[in-house]
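Need tokens for this chain, all 91 residues.
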Amino acid sequence: MRKSDFTMKIEPEFLYSVGQAARYFGVHRCTVYAYVANREKPLPHLISERNGRIIFLGQTLIEYKLNGLPKKGRKRKNTPRGGFANESDKD
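Here are the structure tokens for all 91 residues:
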């Protein structure tokens, strides 16, 4: 997948949807939901009273991106046959 050259401008005082936050971070919408559910560094959010959707304050998005986005990777367990998923897991 090719990275987009489009960069979204975020105003600190406005509210943004999950899709807009994803465009700002340069990730998929599902990744934004993962940021919200992240245990170590959750993305602060609000719930819209009108429709119950997740929304973000612009200032929150700016600060979260400046502090560094969490690394998203698969959490691999041992394979079903008793082997290891990664060579580094052998130690």
